[in-house]
User: Fold this.
Amino acid sequence: MSYVLPPGLPVVDAMTPPVLVLNGPLVPDEVSGPCDALRALMDSGGGGSGRVVVCDVAGLGPAGLAAVNLLARLQLTARRAGGRIRLRDPSPALCALLDLVGLRFETEGQVEQREPPLGVEEAVEPGDPAV
Assistant:
């Protein structure tokens, strides 16, 4: 009896969410293409555990209302398909604009609010006891 291993790492591949790369410049009325691509990823069983699709937004260009509109529609499309999106490499301006309009997105590599970021040390005053 022989057995041929499938290519790739099955456990890792099942846990790795698919990536949807978004490029600019954005036209306000052009949201159907990315939404269709996201829907196709969701319908094909992509998204792994929890049905998450990562949206790489580094190439969107300057943050504006067209980007907010696109991301809101992508999130709505993902939720209708039973999943969610996670942003990769959003610019600080895009994060601020999304926060301003009240949209919350999970981002890759985001530090939890209660934890200090890595590499940050607290200042020690002279005379403080050692811990």
